[in-house]
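Exercise 7b. Backbone tokens:
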């Protein structure tokens, strides 16, 4: 089986979890303990940050 490349670093995942207030859940129960709604919010926040990074590096 081919190994998939990670899209987000572990550090970014934990940073986003802290921003959303679910870091304690991740720390005690792992990512499987995070409610699906919060996982969706985590993905949305990651997309927003990626879009902002692209916008800031875009040549004028």
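Sequence design result:
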């Amino acid at each position: 089986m081919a190994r998939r490349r990670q899209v987000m670093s572990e550090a970014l995942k934990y940073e986003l979890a802290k921003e959303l207030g679910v870091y304690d859940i991740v720390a005690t129960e792992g990512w499987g303990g995070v409610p699906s709604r919060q996982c969706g919010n985590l993905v949305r926040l990651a997309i927003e940050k990626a879009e902002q990074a692209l916008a800031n590096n875009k040549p004028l």
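Instructor comment: Helices lie at 10-20, 23-29, 36-57. The chain has one domain: 10-57.
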